[in-house]
Amino acid sequence: MKNHVWRPLFVVIAIVIGILLFRAFYVPADFGSHDQGYTFGYHRLGNEQEWKDYPEKYKGNDYCNECHDDMIEELESAGHSTIPCENCHGAAFDHPDDPEKLSIDRSRELCIRCHAKLTMPSSGRNDIPGIDPAQHNKGEECSECHNPHNPSLEDM
Amino acid sequence: MKRRDFLKNTAVFVAGASVSVSALDFITPKELFAANPQLKWGFLVDTHKCVGCGFCVKACKTENDIPFEANVTRTWVERYVIKKDGDVVMDSPKGARDGFTTKLLDQNHSGMTLVPENEIAQAFFVPKLCNHCTTPACVQVCPVGATYQTADGVVLVDRSWCIGCGYCIMGCPYGVRFFHPVEHVADKCTFCYHRISKGGDTACAQACPFDARQIGNLKDPNDPVAQAVLNQRVGVLRDEYGTKPNVYYIGLNKEVR
């Protein structure tokens, strides 16, 4: 064959080799189809571990129970016992190291998430005692009258 | 060489050469099942129990570092109000991050509407999250292998591999994907993979005071979620898309899309 065929062919071959070399260095060894096949599982296996190592912020009531077992015990019988501690006290993170003290959300907005009266046929919302936030002691925090752990005024 | 032999050899060569290496690497469903017979994550949502408090949305945002003020959420709660004349009014203000505290329904650009109580036939809350489909459309369209399905059925996004093309966001029939405003990659619910893989609960399920959300192993017949999926009348969203979702709903209406 003549030169005018070979010369562009060398360029093409060089480009292909270049791409293959780049690919060999750039694509990680654990990148592949793995268990699920090419359609759904084509990925970097190491990323699964990266997601598993993502830090947890919410620790759960069992974690709270390690130190505050007296509070948990008191709560068990109270009206708000189904609400996890961290919903009002904030995510524990690495408490008590960081943060040393959790900030408690005592705001009216937190309470009316459940206790703003909404008539919702076919919803569990109706079973929760509700108030009209625009009428019921406007501007005051619920915790001024109600004990957040056991909010029933009759029990106080 | 005879013409007959030439044609025969050519046919054999072409047939052989057209089989690529990847095609020989067949994976049958049986092999797949045998490789990982013990674990497949599934989620159960009980819409009868949900009261629309939005604690799940708040917990998810904190747990997974989704900016609180940005209008993106990995999970959200929708409120449906079905009127007696058949009209459906729906809203989900800020994904129900602050819960539902008013009877007014947020209709975005057309403002707030109030459906008079005597016109309401049904009204209820429906929590939504990534369905972690068995045949996920988002994974199929990802050109770089950044979004994928793990062997235990969770669909994840590789943040260092995602090029932000947005195909997966367009491809998801449920609209559960979004661009993470800080990470600048596609983002979605991970079933709290970092928590469940250590034996914990998802942040949303843990925060729910009413047990409206549960995560479980669909391959364990004694698991409460698997039990519910097997024995109760459960539904999935948009079954017609063929994505085979792994989030099951108790008390799902046809109006919920």
The biggest sheet of chain B, with number of strands, parallel, antiparallel or mixed sense and barrel status, is: 4 strands, mixed
Question: What order do the SSEs of chain A take from the amino end to the carboxyl end, as H and E?
Answer: HEHEHHHHH
Mean pLDDT of chain B: 92
The portion of residues forming beta strands of chain A comes to under 5%
Question: Main sheet of chain A: which strands, in order across?
Answer: 1-2
By DSSP, the count of extended strands of chain A is 2
Structural class computed from helices and strand pairing of chain A: mainly alpha
Order of helix and strand elements from N to C terminus of chain B: HHHEHEEEEEHEEHEEHHEHEE
Low-pLDDT stretches of chain B are none
Summary, kept brief:
The complex is a heterodimer of chains A (156) and B (257). With 156 residues, chain A is an all-alpha fold.
Please give a structural write-up.
Chain A starts with a helix and ends in a 41-residue tail after the last helix. A two-stranded antiparallel sheet of chain A has the order 1-2. Helix content of chain A is 39%, strand content 3%. The model of chain A has no long low-confidence stretch (mean pLDDT 90). Chain A is mainly alpha-helical. Chain A is built from seven helices and two strands. Chain B has 257 residues and is α+β, with helices and mostly antiparallel strands. Helix content of chain B is 24%, strand content 20%. Chain B is built from nine helices and 13 strands. Chain B has helices at 3-17, 21-24, 29-35, 55-63, 137-141, 167-171, 193-196, 203-207, 224-231; strands at 41-46, 76-83, 88-91, 105-106, 112-113, 120-128, 147-149, 155-157, 178-179, 186-187, 213-217, 234-235, 247-250. In chain B, the strands form five sheets. Chain B has a four-stranded mixed β-sheet. Classes of the chains: A mainly alpha (156), B alpha+beta (257). The interface between A and B is large, with 46 and 62 residues.
